[in-house]
Design brief:
The protein is of the alpha/beta class and 256 residues long. It is built from nine helices and ten strands. The longest helix has 18 residues. The site of adenosine-5'-triphosphate (ATP) has 13 residues, from β2 and α1. This is ABC transporter ATP-binding protein.
């Protein structure tokens, strides 16, 4: 099992002295190589779930396990990627990809080789000596993915990695991420507000309730072409799944 949440709740003590329960009684499992998306209303605790997986926060009750091991501190086997690429502007792309390897003490020649392989896998060969400002938003996100994969994590956490991209770039980068992730065979947890994105990219979608968030529904996405969301997008089932999630989240009632 790549990831397991067992009876997890998380409360924060606010400065006002009040306690805020972000998530409650979260239970789910993610198999090795599975791609799972998490959707839910704003503030329902999606990022809190990622932070607990990475070991940045500890659950108030319950347990989180990555590759069977209890997460009790920041976990070096978890790769985290955010909406903003967070590439270091003063470093070339390859030096950015090498960053995590450097901090793990990987020798220079090995670092270079690993980083080049990841850049190739993320379709960025030829751009290794460019600086982040010389790349488009989509390319920067691909570089950030290369950096995340370079540390050979057990699982990667993607927190809305496509939300700052324009609509067309988004489709292309979703496709490129899906291909790379499938090829790497890596377990992935994606947070998104885009319901269609969740359906076209995932094996399964977890739908959370309003805060305190809990898993309302686990929706399996039994559709072909997980590595090609552009193709999947054409399937009528995608719209049916997205509509079901829309209803679960009662988005129509909220708009009214
Ligand atoms: N460190 C913290 N201290 C206090 N409250 C926090 C902390 N981190 C998160 N929260 C609160 O926990 C709740 C869940 O936050 P979280 O960011 O996990 O939600 P989210 O579903 O990712 O939200 P969004 O979709 O808006 O990004 C929010 O009410 C937030 O204010």
């Amino acid at each position: 099992m790549a990831l397991e949440f067992k009876g997890v709740s998380k409360s924060f003590n606010l400065d006002t002295g009040q306690e805020l329960t972000a998530v409650r009684d979260i239970n789910f499992k993610v198999e090795k190589g599975e791609f799972v998306s998490v959707v839910g209303p704003s503030g329902c605790g999606k990022s809190t779930i990622l932070s607990m997986t990475a070991g940045l926060y500890q659950p108030t009750t319950g347990e989180v396990r990555v590759s069977g091991e209890l997460v009790t501190k920041p976990n070096p086997h978890v790769g985290f990627m955010l909406q903003k690429d967070l590439l270091l502007p003063w470093r070339t792309i390859i030096k950015n990809v090498e960053f995590g390897l450097e901090s793990r003490g990987v020798p220079r020649a090995q670092r270079r080789e690993r980083a080049m392989a990841e850049l190739e896998r993320c379709h960025l060969a030829g751009f290794e000596n460019h600086y982040p400002y010389q790349l488009s938003g989509g390319m920067r996100q691909r570089a950030a993915l290369a950096r995340t994969l370079a540390i050979d994590p057990d699982i990667i956490l993607l927190d809305e990695p496509f939300s700052a991209l324009d609509a067309q770039t988004k489709l292309l980068i979703q496709n490129s991420f899906a291909e790379t992730i499938m090829e790497a065979g890596i377990t992935t947890l994606l947070i998104t507000h885009d319901l269609s994105e969740a359906v076209i990219m995932s094996d399964r979608v977890l739908v959370l309730s309003e805060r305190p968030g809990t898993v309302m529904c686990e929706m399996p996405i039994d559709l072909p072409d997980r590595a090609h969301p552009l193709k999947r997008r054409q399937l009528p089932e995608v719209h049916q799944h997205a509509a079901e999630i829309f209803t679960l989240l009662r988005l129509d009632q909220r708009a009214a």
